[in-house]
Design brief:
single chain, 112 residues, Creatine Amidinohydrolase, two-stranded antiparallel ribbon
Length: 112
């Protein structure tokens, strides 16, 4: 099998790398704070509410919030993707999703 596509590689400047590094640091702080809150009895919506405050304090914008791809009429309604147990990705954080002991909680965040 032959792959017939070309991949463009963009070399970043030192300034661009510094911006990416700072964004990654901010994003790590947000993710770690949310992970520390993900305990039994807390809802996915509770994490979303905290994420709103953390993103605001970071000075950045959540990259998922109101994202709409070309094939969808409905934008993504949350700042986070919270996936629990057998959910793979892109779980929308709802109030009815309450964490229980032993749950595997995936927290996905992105920053612009």
């Amino acid at each position: 099998m032959v792959c017939d596509f070309k991949m463009a590689i963009t070399v970043k400047t030192k300034t661009e790398i510094a911006i990416l590094r700072e964004g990654g640091r901010k994003l790590g702080v947000i993710r770690d704070a949310l992970a520390a809150l993900a305990k039994p009895g807390i809802s996915a919506a509770d994490l979303e509410k905290e994420a709103e405050e953390l993103f605001s304090a970071s000075g950045g914008e959540p990259s998922f919030f109101m994202y709409r791809d070309k094939s969808s009429d409905t934008p993504f309604p949350a700042r986070t993707c919270i996936s629990v147990n057998d959910a793979i990705v892109h779980g929308v954080p709802h109030e009815h999703i309450v964490f229980r002991e032993g749950d595997l909680v995936g927290i996905d965040v992105g920053l612009k």
